[in-house]
Each structure stands twice: as C-alpha cells, then as structure tokens.
Amino acid sequence: MSKLFESIIVGDLEIKNRIVMPPMCMYSAKEGCVSDFHVLHYGARALGGVGLIIVEATGVSDCGRITDNCLGIYDDCQTEGLSRIAAAIKDYGATAAIQLGHAGRKCTVNVPEIIAPSAIAFDSKHRTPREMKLEDIEAVVDEFKNAARRAAEAGFDMVEIHGAHGYLLSTFLSPLSNKRDDEYGGIPENRARIVGLVLQAVKQVFSGTVCLRVSADDFLPKGNRPADLAAMINSVKANGIDIVNVSVGGVVPVSIPTYPGYQLKFAEEIKLLTGLPVMAGGLLTSPEHMEEIVANKRADMVFVGRELLRNPNFPLFASRSLNAGCLWPNQYEKAALT
After folding, report:
1. CA gap 148, 74 in Å, rounded
2. Cα–Cα distance between 139 and 67 in angstroms, integer?
3. How far is CA 72 from CA 134, 301, 333, in A?
C-alpha cells in the first residue's frame, strides 16, 4: 500500500491522502471577491484527487492583501463567494482549507498606509511601512479572529495562518525585519508573541484544524534558522497548532538555491524539534520521491504546487505510478489508464 495515498488524521480532521495543494496566488479577484475562475480552479484539483487544498493567501484586511487582485476575507459580503470554493472542493472529495494572511510591508494595494513591526521597507521597490503601535497589533489580532469566523461560516475544514515569506506575521518572527524593543521584539519568545495571540483568537471562533506556515530559514547570517523557528513554534504551539507548513525565505531579498525537495531538510528539522506533523515540498514532481518522503517519515504530507498547475490530475497519475489503486471520477473512467 502506498504511504502517499494513506489517509492521515490532523487535529480532528481525516484527510484522504498526503498530497497538499499549497496556497498559490491567482491574482483573479475583484475587490477581494471570488470569481468563477476560483471555483473552477480549486474544484478541478479536488476532482483530480488532491487530499488537502489550501486556498491562496486571503487578506484579513484590505491592506492585508498582497495585490488589488488578491482574495479578501475582511467583509461579510466576501463569505458567500468563499463558500462556493469550499463547497466545490468538498463536493469533489478533497479537504478544504484557506490561508489567512496579512501582507504587511509587502502590500501593494492602493491604501493610505501599510504597516509592519518596524519601519523598514522590503526593498527599494516597496513602500516604507509605518511601525505598528500596540493598538495596531490588537486590531490585527481581531482581524484574524474575524477572518477565521468567516472561514468557518464559509465551510472550510482548516485554516492556515500565514507566518511565512516576509508578510506581516513573518516579519515579526524575523530579527532582520523586527527591530522593536517592546514585548513584541527582541528575544524569540517576544517576536512570536503576536502569532500566539492570533492562534488564541482564531481558536475562539474556529473549531476546525489549524495550520501554521513558516519560513524556516532567512538565508542570511543574522536571520532565522530552523532551530530559531522551532523554538518560537514551541513557545506558542499550545495555543492551537495542529500541523506546520514549512517553507523558506521571503523575509528579505536573497537568492535561494532550489532543486526538487529543497525545502525538505528544513521541514525535517522543524518536525524533530517541535514534535508536530509537517508539510514539506519544493519543486516536487516525482511520485516516487514523494512516496519516499512520506514512507520514511521525513514529512507527514507533501505540498505540490507547480506540478498541479501543469496537471490538475497529477494525483490520479501518481496513484497509477505507485500502484495505489485510486479510483478515477465516474465521469472520467473511460480515460483511466490501466
């Protein structure tokens, strides 16, 4: 029996296999609202056999969106469209998750100001953010809470808190972007404080499974390494982390060496040091490689991004390659390869 196609329990949620579609921005929203494209896009991957689908970065506020064409979950009127996505995912056999995020200093939406833990621009092409006051931090925590409530109302089984890639929560975690000298800066436990508060707030209104996405390495000498992220995760994991989605980079402009599975070693270290299940990946395309990762317990789930953009039915072909015996959808049975 293929380990990749075994079901897994995460929190109180049973997921049919270990293949994850990670959040990938589609830049197809209007005023933060879902379009027909989104429903078709995510529904197709569910029909294609993915176990867990995580809807793209969805802003908890207007200035929390990355671009003008990114999804939002900051207004009750956006819930109906998001519920269409969740329903399409679940109707075709996958588990529905949504990534809740705040762009922070990487926001390019036409808003009066952008915010971050410290007034440091990401690069010369981005605006300089305003350093957040304590009341700003409280407001952002409330925005995540309200977003999680809407996610529950829309029918999502899991929410992923976006603490990676140099967006707002990620910039609190990294010493390269967080130069505060109050209770939200300095030592790792302080830098993780806002993540702990967000988790607490989310769990008050969302009874489903909670994932935290992190960038496990900043790739600069004074930045975070996996052991640093693990320590911060350990300081807040009692607040409700069921699984960690491990990525890397994005906090500062830096070149990252890439190859199939290049993020795996970081996920392995996070898994070892936190005792939490992890999702891992990075340019994975081979079913055999994915099988090895899961079978050897290097990660609990694997995320497959670009390959799923190329081939929405990738899991069905992977099942055949691994002799896992997954059934094709009834409508497509005549096309199944035997």
Report:
1. 10
2. 21
3. 24, 27, 37
Nearest-angstrom CA–CA distance, 19 and 285: 12
- Which amino acid belongs to residue 31? E
Q: Which domains does the chain have, with CATH numbers?
A: 8-335 (3.20.20.70)
Cα(261)–Cα(277) distance, rounded to whole angstroms? 17
Confidence (pLDDT) at 52: 98
Identify residue 22 by its one-letter amino acid code: P
> Whose CA is closest to 100, among 155, 23, 44, 35?
23
CB-based contact 89:132 (threshold 8 Å):
no
CA separation for the pair 301, 246 (Å, rounded): 11
For residue range 12-68, list pLDDT tens digits in order: 999 999 999 999 999 999 999 999 999 999 999 999 999 999 999 999 999 999 999
List for the chain the helix, strand, coil content (%; round to 5): 40, 15, 45
For the chain, give the percent of residues with pLDDT over 90.
Answer: 96
Q: How confident is the model at residue 325 (pLDDT cuts 50, 70, 90)?
A: confident
Tokens encoding 267: 């996920």
State how far the alpha carbon of 120 is from the alpha carbons of 56, 103, 129, 171, 177, in Å: 26, 14, 6, 10, 7
The token duo for 212 is: 């935290």
3-state SS, residue 93: coil
Residues 6+ apart with CB under 8 A from 233: 192, 212, 214, 241, 244, 270, 274, 276
What is the three-class DSSP state of 61? Answer: coil
